[in-house]
Amino acid sequence: MRAPIMPMLIAGLALWAGQAFAQPSQPRYSADGLYNLANAYARAGKPGLAVLSYERAALLAPDDPDINANLAYVRAAAHVSMKPPNRFTRLAQATSPSFAAWLGVLGLALAGIGLVAARVAARFLWIPRGASLLGVVLIAVTASNAMLLWPRMHEAVVLVDQTPGRVSPAPMADAAFVLREAESVTMTAEHEDFIFIRTDGGLSGWVARANLGAVMPPVGNER
């Protein structure tokens, strides 16, 4: 019997996201540690690094009111707009990636048990059907969380004020626009020391890699 590929990939993605912040050698990659680090950056007048740390903390504790409030405050102080999440986004982000992954594993188990039990226990079909329905709901929660997590893996925060977005990946290329510190962008491609980004306003161009901080840090890398 073949294992269902898509649910396992979804669960694996969410587990990987949790592991990216759970390295034993990096104890500050916890919601509390990142929150305190962000507060220190905010007090030091470094809104880019503060927003980056708040965003990372929000991945681990998406419903923490202090993290979300401080994130909004620092963005507002830096004159950077922040799109309010819709109802579906708030619902799907109510669980952390690692917890959502375990919900998906539990959902797969319940759905499988329900299918097997339905063939064995003919008199009490409501029990296996209920287990299967609950399993499907848990898998749906995991899938929603993973779908929202996937684009965040390509999000970055501008760390240097007046960062130019250039027309080509070269230090002397013409600047098409300028980015504010603490602004969020989407990374779509890379070339040597430059990353091709897209802003929420639809602007796109090449930005120096050193001027950006990825919201989802690579495992074993702090930046």
Describe the structure concisely.
Helices cover 51% and strands 16% of the residues.
Please render the helix and strand layout as text.
Layout: H1 5-20, H2 31-43, H3 47-60, H4 65-77, H5 87-92, H6 97-120, H7 126-152, E1 155-158, E2 163-166, E3 175-179, E4 184-191, E5 194-199, E6 204-208, E7 212-214
Antiparallel strand pairs: 1-4, 1-7, 2-3, 4-5, 5-6
Defining traits:
223 residues, alpha+beta, five-stranded antiparallel β-sheet, two-stranded antiparallel ribbon, 7 helices, 51% helix
> Would you list the SSEs in sequence order as H and E?
HHHHHHHEEEEEEE
Structural class: alpha+beta
- The average pLDDT is 74
Strand content: 15-25%
How would you describe the shape?
A: globular
Q: Could you give the count of β-strands? A: 7
* Stretches with pLDDT under 50, minimum 5 residues: 1-27
Question: How much helical structure, as a percent, in the residues?
Answer: 40-55%
Computed CA radius of gyration, to the nearest angstrom: 21 Å
Helices, by number, come to 7
Note the main sheet. Answer: 5 strands, antiparallel
Q: Give the termini separation.
A: 42 Å
Strand order of the largest sheet: 6-5-4-1-7
Please describe what this structure looks like:
The protein is α+β, with helices and mostly antiparallel strands and 223 residues long. 51% of the residues lie in helices and 16% in strands. It contains seven helices and seven strands; from the N terminus they run αααααααβββββββ. It has helices at 5-20, 31-43, 47-60, 65-77, 87-92, 97-120, 126-152, and strands at 155-158, 163-166, 175-179, 184-191, 194-199, 204-208, 212-214. The strands form two sheets. It has a five-stranded antiparallel sheet. A two-stranded antiparallel sheet has the order 2-3. β4 and β5 (194-199) form a beta hairpin. Mean pLDDT is 74; it is low at 1-27.
